[in-house]
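Could you show me some protein's one-letter sequence and the numbers that encode its backbone in two labelled lines?

___
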Amino acid sequence: MMLATLVQTTRPAFLLLALSVTALAVALAFSAGASMTWWLVALVALGAVIAHACVNVLNEVDDARSGLDALTERTPFSGGSGALQAQPRALNAAAALGLGLLALVIAIGLYFIYLRGWGLFPLGLLGVVLVVAYTPMLTRLPWLCLIAPGLGFGPLMVLGSYYVLTGSYSGVAFATSFIPFFLVNNLLLLNQFPDAKADVQVGRRHLIIATSPAVALRVFQAFLVAPYVLLVALVGVGVLPLWALLGLVSLVVAIPLYRGVSTLQSPSNIPHALLGQNVVVNLSMPALIAVGLLLA
């Protein structure tokens, strides 16, 4: 029972996002002609998944301690897993798990620095800061709260993975990393709508609270359009190959999502279907671009 509870706090289904973003970084490295070994690719992917799991566990622990998860209306995409509410005795074990995962991420990062040099250190340090500070600090700073998720899964994860695989940074990888930057910012932003009233009660101050639901929805729409404009622009100027436009297939889901958000009568009551579509766009667009890069 305890083990099952701890596994739940990692939010396993959501860890696919780390794999999708890592796949994009691997494909960028492959298209740049990098010679990669399977074990290094696997370790990069494992490090990304562990980092994501660490954030999830620490968030679950913080929300359980603050009482937030007891106030939220849980959905399949927001409001926490409910694991620590069902098994409150697992709270200390979950906290230990979160710290253990953080230590493991740092250890993997130090190995990568040993392998590739200190050029990776600034990204790694910023990544650790984001992991530790997101829930207790950044959720109280509206604009940092908005961009922190995308910064972690975009420039930090894509560039960091690319550097480990190639031994250097790349303007192509940096520019492309802003595709998951916008997508993942939106993933967290839309998921904050159902929790906004509860978030106020525990001192959070994200964009929805600091401005208004209407303003936050406009930001969401802009961020939903941005990665597609960026992808077309990068292909148009020759930074990415034509096959990268395979990522546009995700518009099949993104367009209904945009329309659905545009016609919302009550922003505080986001239909589960829209939350699900947002997840699908996040998972599919980086993965499809990765496939396109491998086919090019």
Notes: The chain has a mean pLDDT of 93.
